[in-house]
Specification:
Radius of gyration: 19 Å
Number of helices: 5
Oligomer: single chain
Shape: elongated
Largest sheet: 2 strands, antiparallel
Distance between the termini: 43 Å
Number of strands: 2
Number of domains: 1
Strand content: under 5%
Helix content: over 70%
């Protein structure tokens, strides 16, 4: 997107990007609210203590990034003076006044957080696959409860 010449298509991509970010932010807030009232099941007893710690740290990191990435984008847009309009209907209030230098710093933060997010997501996927194919435990099936339904139908 950033390398495209200014065009209606580029502006549409940015709008979709922002809509997705705002949606992720609100879904994450809803998910955390739900999680507060419905604690996660315990991790498998056979997991080593350091792996349990890493799992909790990974989940904390994913939740943190699900909030920090969209929030940094929202702050960046505000500082650059470009208001976000969710789904082209609901204007989201700017959180900062226009400041070009701050906007550039927030762009760098937003980009860095996205790369960190990609690393966390990749590690999460690899860990789930390790549990399923190497450890042969039920961690992946617990994450994707619909899989046993399909498995029992075959």
């Amino acid at each position: 997107m950033t390398d495209m010449e200014l065009s209606p298509e580029k502006l549409q991509y940015y709008s979709w990007h922002k809509w997705t970010g705002v949606s992720v932010l609100w879904v994450t807030v809803a998910r955390l609210t739900w999680r507060f009232f419905n604690p996660a099941p315990d991790v498998p007893e056979l997991m080593h203590t350091h792996l349990k710690f890493m799992a909790h740290l990974g989940h904390f990191g994913l939740y943190f990034l699900c909030i920090a990435v969209p929030l940094s984008g929202w702050l960046m847009s505000s500082a650059k003076g470009v208001q976000t309009v969710w789904f082209g209907i609901w204007p989201i209030p700017d959180l900062l006044s226009k400041d070009k230098e701050l906007g550039n710093q927030l762009r760098q933060l937003h980009e860095t957080l996205n790369w960190v997010f990609i690393a966390f997501i990749s590690t999460h996927i690899l860990a789930a696959l390790k549990h399923h194919f190497i450890n042969k435990d039920l961690v992946l099936l617990r994450m994707l409860p619909i899989l046993p339904f399909f498995k029992s139908r075959n």
